[in-house]
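ARCHIVE CARD
Drawer: 12
Card no.: 0347
Subject: one protein chain, sequence and derived structure
Cross-reference: see card 0346
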Amino acid sequence: MSQSTQHKIGRVRPPRVQITYDVEVGENTEVKELPFVAGIMADLSGEPKEPLPPLKKRKFVEIDGENFDKVLAASDPHLSFRVDDVLTGNGKLDVELDFAELEDFSPTRVVSQVPALAKLLEARIRLKDLISKLDGNEDLDGLLQEVLNNSEEREALKQQLGGSDD
C-alpha cells in the first residue's frame, strides 16, 4: 500500500514543526501528532501582464524545492516601474523585470534586464578580462600604457574600434 506524502516526508526529513497531544486510550496514554499545514494567500505576481482570475477560481499550489521554478514561471511575476536615472543624472528610467526562476532574483540577472545597467555590467566583465590578461603579460601592459599616454594614438584606436565617449 502506498504511503501518504506526510509519511514519506517524515522518513526523508523530519518536520520542523511538530504539534502533539496526549490521548488516553484505556489505561495508556498515547501521543498523537497533528500535521502542520500552512496555506498562504498572496498576490506575488507584481503587475501581471494579463489580469488574474477571480480569487474563487484560483487553486492552492503545493510548492517545494523541486518545483519552485516551475510554479514561479507559471505565476509569471512582472514588475514595471520608473526610477531616477542616476547613470546620466537626468530624467527617469523605465524598468521592466520578469522572473521565471529563482536565479532571476540574483543581482546579475536583474541588472541584465535593464539595458543601461546591462551595458555597464558588460563593460565591467570586459575590464575584468583585460586585467586577467594583463597579469604577467608585460608586453601588453607596456602597449596599453603607451596608448593611454599618447592621446593621438588613443583617439585613432577609439575610431578604429568604433568606440564612443561612453
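Annotation on reverse: The longest strand covers residues 19-25. The helical segments are 5-12, 68-75, 107-112, 115-134, 138-149, 151-161.
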